[in-house]
Amino acid sequence: MYNKGLIKLFAFLFGIVSIYQLSYTFISSKIENEAATYAASKISESENDFASKREALETRYLDSIGGESVFGYTSYEEAKKKELNKGLDLKGGINVTLQIKIKDILSGLANNTKNPVFLKSLEDADEASKSSDKTYVDLFFEAFDANKGDLKYASPDIFFTKSLSEEIKSMEASDEEVKSIIRKKIDESVESAFEVLRERIDGFGVTQPNIQREGTSGRILVELPGAKDKARAQELLSSTAQLEFWETYPKNDPNVMQFINAANEKLRSLVDTKTATAEDTESKPESEIDSLLSDVTQDSLDVATQINPLGDLIKGIPSAGFVIAEFAIKDTAKVNEYLNMPEIKRLIPNAIQHVKFAWERPSKGSEVVGLYALKGNRDNAPKMSGDVVSAARAQFDQFNRPAVGMDMNVKGAKQWQKFTSEVNLNQTGIAVVLDNRVYTAPGCSVVGGISGGSTEISGDFTITETKDIANVLRAGKLPARADIIQSEVVGPSLGHESINSGLMSFLIAMALVLVWMVFYYGKAGVAADIALLLNILLIFGVLVSLGAVLTLPGIAGIVLTIGMSVDANVLIFERIKEELAKGKGQALAISDGFSNALSSILDANITTGLTAIILFIFGSGPIKGFATTLLIGIATSLFTAIFVTRLFVEGYTGSKGKVLEFCTGLTRNLFKNLSIDFLKKRKIAYIISGLLIIVALFSLTTNGLQQGVDFVGGRTYQVRFDQNVNTAEISSNLSEVFGSGTNVKTFGEDNQIMITTSYKVDAEDIAVDEEIQEKLFTSLQNLLPSGLTLEEFNNGGTDDVSIGILKSKKVGPTIADDIKKNAVWAILGSLFVVFLYILFRFRKWQFSLGAVVAVFHDVLVVLGVFSLLGKVMPFNMEIDQAFIAAILTVIGYSLNDTVVVFDRIREIVRERGWSSGDNVGLALNSTLSRTLNTSLTTLVVLLAIFIFGGESLRGFMFAMIIGVIVGTYSSLFIATPVMFDTLKKRIQSGKEDVVVEDKE
Fold it and tell me: In this predicted structure, what is the pLDDT of residue 372?
């Protein structure tokens, strides 16, 4: 091998740089462990709320030493920024895909026009977006073009508005010009939303957050590793920061009271009151209900007729402030439904015809929430908007309670003085409304109003909440609503378990492979093991250098890379053994062995790399992590197998004439002199494969596949209990709460379940998520430890006990359709790309056909197994993105195997000729040692992950195990026979030349 010195230098420098990059991870982990030890020594477990106190002390400790030098070249703060990024499944945290409502942006650009053509086009675009891959703006343009008639985009009723007057110069502007301007404006709005979200996230306080736009779809992906308070994170991300100042109606305004009473009377004839009970009403203070429904007759208060649909929901009426009534938080949806009924709206008195009802922001831990009546107008606009706020900060009010201070610009200061003066005269309140929630509603006793333009939002806030509110107000409002269309929340305890299980599977797989290589190849196996260890070091070094994220599937990708690295060494060692068997000297045999194996190694890794690239393009989240590590692993394993292994092998044999046999006493004659006639058995193989495919297709047609929420939409919750539970009983209870689209099954141990529900799958409001979690908590409460709060249940228990929701995931139906389409395109795309590559490499379409038929065979068999056994196996076998990653990996592995066989066929036929196909069988036998060795090694690796890698990876690994077995079979009994039969007929008919040259 030439340039040994350069390769040694490169390998050395590559290894040193990798160690240097990884040192930041070790340093940050070491210091964090020291902080945890320090906090534990200072705060005893006997103290109340010791866990949060320890966490706060750890934070202060890390802040205090953050800038101090460590080992003379870094600090904790710098090391934290440069450490290995761990994904949500390893660290816990929140992953959210936000959809910026392009519809809202279009409406804003059109000045909220009421033009029927415009509104109809929006409705059509909404409907089309459910089944189309096109962007919303393109769908709107198509709908508008179909509906517009003679109407132009530059019409004053559409986009020729004051806000667009600088871009659209006149009503004569062409439709195409306006479309281009609208696209540009929408892109600017999405970019503005991106920047606003990034600024908010910077103030959230998590390390290594990730935020990125997804093409031109208007979607923004946000990852917050380590974030624990999911409710806080979701509210921060989805909040539009629409700050408004409204005037409230006075306390006990007669018109408001008249409306509430009339609404209650009308509702008696509109809603089903049979489920109401006397107990519901008796539990409320009579004086409070009577004061609100003052003219309810005594007869209506009899137990038999004591039904007040609205009044029975009232929990209290505060004596101070401007809240008209308090309701249970769980009843707010029902109250909203009542108040928004057309029959009820018609009862609003003329004096308050533009009244707007709004809920207050509930205090943490409160079970009730107040309802305000705000003074609206014809345009439903507030007295003042938040655009006038120039600064916001967290502070403390006069009673030393956390509050938010705001400063207004000159224009805002004048409006504020006028507004507060009117409030003082009317004896009403000022409702400070943020995203349709009333945060506070004080009165004003200052004659002439408040000057200076400064104000304060006070209430029952925590310091964290005031920081978040100030952060949101400083960052500014989003240009349109941001809906959470996909989310995944992983609790920190589950992340810790995933690290342990992932590390365990990694170490076991590594140990098995290292031992096997020494057992099979003796001292040569030691050289391969050293190269393999360097390969692992380089993979982690590259991951850190690129800032890539390590996920649990990513660990699986690294472990799979071990198998691929071994495959390269097996190919090389088997070729060296063949050269030695021909009587060549050791040095020449080693040189020729490496040279002859290179083509197969490159072809095999390129085909796998192509599928990994497609997986990276079409995948998301952890699946991208799997593809990333696989791609990095392919590159590093090629380097270590081809160059580093050779350095050690030649270094050993070149010193003092030592002999390297590339085998041990037990493996010397293994797979030697094989003469299996694979081609004669091809008809039997065709029959077996045909039966397997018929069974698979029958099962797929009748049983189908268990599609996960990735493909159908919905929500899943991984819930753990402190005792074994009965899934049938839980399923029955939850089906009554959430409907028939609810599925419950054991997930791993008998004390852990996976709940999947399609309940309100179209709803994207955070309130729906909170509603579902509350219903889950209520329905499962008899199985949970006494004293466990709703908040602890939602966050996976306490620091001591992992109980409750460990992981949750939500996928909206629109993005589910996109994921499904991407999955199909990923599979078809990989097949097409590989077909072209094999055609390019082997110059015969018969080779491509054989490879693709074998891959189709493998994919159908794997799908059939999942269809047949999906409801039988004791682990999750749903079809989701991870399963698609497994299928693509199976495709890559199967092609890897097939290409190695084809490469040997090409080589032997080139040397010896076609010989009526006999040399094809010879080539198959000559690669059998490599095929079985690699397959067994890979299976051992996959089994280690399957057994020790954690429940979330079992279905993923099972698909790959089946795929490796079937892929090994198909490369021998499907790919080659199909190629042989199609090529043989054409050779015999004279339509095709022999592969290279027939030397018979």
Answer: 92
